[in-house]
């Protein structure tokens, strides 16, 4: 994938070790369905969570993980690039090539702390650092309960720098009938913020009236 910076339909998606693997999978599927090229970063803990919550045991090898995901989602392999955590030659590592939009979903409190403090200790953290320094859009779909004072301080610092902190907290006013409906609620809000058209959930005041 050589033209990330030039192609507006390219995005970076990161999965970390917070609960909520179905959000990350559904978001990936929707981005590819919208014909976005996705650079996917997966932390070690995210692979544990994905296996625990979804039964999908992803390889630590980026090429093998890509093949598994393409088969699982039945998606276009040309639109997916899985990046290794030390792949410093990936476009996401440099402001000269990185996509201008990045979503971390689900986002652990560990990654919140690392990004808040600009550690850049692996490719995922570096990609988040690059998007911020290039004044791009960074959305962190955080999940923990309750939040500690330290978590809140880190998220406050990120929010002050223009990062969107979006808690994985689906609403119930669309009367969800299934877990998929709850997942789609969150994914729809993320797509809205990315300005990607979606019809996953009826829009308040347009498609839905209380009975
Ligand atoms: C099944 C499972 C669920 C977890 N859920 C959360 C969570 O909801 N929020 C969180 O901050 N950490 C959670 N953790 C702990 C993180 O995975 C752990 O802190 C890890 O070091 C985060 O690393 P990462 O940010 O590099 O992915 C969970 C771990 C496991 C195994």
From TrEMBL:
Indicate which residues the UniProt annotation says bind dimethylallyl phosphate: 173, 189
MF terms (GO), sorted A to Z = flavin prenyltransferase activity
E.C. number: 2.5.1.129
Give the function comment from the record. Flavin prenyltransferase that catalyzes the synthesis of the prenylated FMN cofactor (prenyl-FMN) for 4-hydroxy-3-polyprenylbenzoic acid decarboxylase UbiD. The prenyltransferase is metal-independent and links a dimethylallyl moiety from dimethylallyl monophosphate (DMAP) to the flavin N5 and C6 atoms of FMN.
Q: What's this protein's family per the entry?
A: Belongs to the UbiX/PAD1 family.
Record-linked PANTHER family: FLAVIN PRENYLTRANSFERASE, FLAVIN PRENYLTRANSFERASE PAD1, MITOCHONDRIAL
Q: What is the name listed in the Swiss-Prot or TrEMBL entry for this protein?
A: Flavin prenyltransferase UbiX
Source organism per entry reads Vibrio stylophorae
């Amino acid at each position: 994938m050589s033209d990330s910076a030039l192609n507006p339909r390219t995005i970076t998606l990161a999965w970390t070790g917070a609960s909520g693997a179905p959000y990350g999978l559904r978001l990936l599927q929707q981005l590819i369905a919208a014909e976005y090229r996705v650079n996917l970063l997966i932390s070690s803990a995210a692979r544990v969570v994905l296996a625990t919550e979804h039964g999908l045991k992803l390889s630590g090898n980026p090429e093998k993980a890509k093949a598994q995901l393409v088969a699982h989602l039945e998606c276009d392999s040309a639109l997916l690039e899985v990046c290794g955590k030390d792949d410093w030659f990936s476009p996401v590592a440099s402001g000269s090539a990185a996509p201008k939009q990045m979503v971390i979903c689900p986002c652990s409190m560990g990654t919140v702390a690392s990004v808040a403090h600009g550690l850049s200790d692996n490719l995922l953290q570096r990609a988040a650092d690059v998007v911020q320094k290039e004044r791009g859009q960074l959305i962190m779909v955080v999940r923990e309960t309750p939040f500690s004072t330290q978590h809140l301080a880190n998220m406050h610092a990120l929010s002050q720098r223009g990062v969107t902190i979006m808690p994985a907290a689906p609403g119930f006013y669309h009367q969800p009938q299934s877990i998929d409906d709850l997942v789609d609620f969150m994914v729809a809000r993320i797509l809205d913020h990315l300005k990607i058209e979606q019809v996953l959930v009826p829009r308040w005041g347009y498609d839905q009236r209380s009975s």
